[in-house]
Amino acid sequence: MLPYVGRFGENKDVARRIRLDIIIPFLGNNETVILNFKGVESVTQSFIHALISDVIRKYGIDVLDESLIFKDCDVTIQKIISIVVDYMQNNAMKET
Length: 96
Description:
The protein is of the alpha/beta class. The chain has one domain (2-95). It has 5 helices and 4 strands. The protein has helices at 2-5, 12-28, 45-59, 63-66, 75-95, and strands at 8-9, 33-36, 42-43, 68-71. A two-stranded parallel ribbon has the order 1-3. Strands 2-4 form a two-stranded parallel ribbon. 21% of the residues are buried.
């Protein structure tokens, strides 16, 4: 992720481009995607939302256990990912 976002991931357009150009095509080919955050010091919640929310909508929450792996995330990034995942799960439950 560092080459795409630098030390601070905040640009939603960059997140969208990663999602459309990398994540979805690889998942569509039944491949595992590893998002390595080594060197990334922080991200915004909106960046993570733009990165994974449509992926979760399209592939379901289980994609996070099966095919979309987050690697080398510090505690802050882990918490932000958890917030977005919880938000997506809560919205999915409201829709059913």
